[in-house]
Write a structure and sequence with these properties.
This protein is mostly helical. Helix content is 63%, strand content 1%.
Length: 455
Amino acid sequence: MEKLKLTTIFCCVTLAVSCVVFVATSCSQTGEQVVSDRALQESYEELYLSANSQQELVASLIEFEVANPAHFKSKLDLAQWYFSQANHVLSWQYLQRALSLADEAGFGMEFEDSATDGDDSTLISNQISQMNIPDGLTDIDLELLHRLLGYLCLFRDDINGAEKYGKTSLALTDYHCSRLGNTDEGLVVPSLYLMAQVLFSMAEAEDFVQEETIENALEYYDRAYKLNPQGLASMHLLGYGKLLVRVQRTNEAEAMVEEFFRRNAVTLDTILVAQEIYAATNNDYKEKICSFLREDYVLGLLGLDDESPVTGENWISEYKKLVDMREENKISKTNSGHSVVVPGESDYQEEKFFGETYCEAALRYKEGRIVKGDLDSLVGLEPYFISSPSYYWLLWTVAKDLGNGEAFIPALKKTIALNPSGVFARDARQEIQNLVATQVSDEKENNSLLDSILF
């Protein structure tokens, strides 16, 4: 059976973690060196191999952790799982248990300011090498432990605690790379994003009056983003974007938002973040486009029992007014294109904003001016809207209007799957019933269409 893995896509940051299992066994009250128990390790690994579902795996890990209170990795894995599910209370509890085992084992992380505030990785490595990292733990496991603690402190508005754990996370990553002679800077990216977010929170708490804090935060953001743009999460997007705007790097802020959308599906949270950044850059056109995208996204989340089912007429009509204003030069066309750029670089290549393409297709469909090119454009937008029932419903209606509905039956299925109790799901089921009725009435020997609908 293929090994079942816990989901490790976090709301704020991810790091590839080895599935090797470590056992922390405290040998005395003072915390002697952790030793590995091979039999226990194998039984822990077997939980991943034997579980038939994610739910079953998590239940097995909980039972194992209770039965083996000195097992470090089970606590870290459960903390990581609950963190990914935004259950910060349980994540914090398991992290504290793991941290307690690490402390009992003799591992302590208190760096001198000179080591954590500067770039002297050699000094940091020397300090860590003089500490006791037991055989049962690794610097990578300990880095993840402290990084998750850092984020949870941020979520609790404990900036000092977040800074302490963030510095530890960064130092452990630097130490890991220097110990192995690893020059892959990408390994440090998750820690860089954490420290950038910590410093942004500090700058925000200081009402952005401390220029040094802003500069330090941007230094971390710039380095992390250049090494790995994919590591940018929605919470980083807002912090980084605000600071870029504050130092007059507005083109880079907008480019970062649009590049983020190219890699991540649209959600309500990211649309709101984008709106805030476009407002800060005074790009009224894109800010309004995002407001239309938000309204359209909400349509797909509505249930049949909602008091005010919306058809989309309102926002499409407002978009029409926006287009008219732009054509009359009453609203700026500045930066209406997509800027493909890495912050810190200055070469821009203009490309149409994806939100504008979507709104245009919806407007043209409403006005009866839809053409095949609009359908092709909508298909190309799918990576942006894979979680939006509204998108798949529009895709189907456009395809059907162009006489190509049979090829887009999967769009109906996606509409239903994303929100089974939604208003669009109800209409999608009716469309499927109509297709089935048409197929049966045709009395064709070839039932391929019927099969594609039902199966």
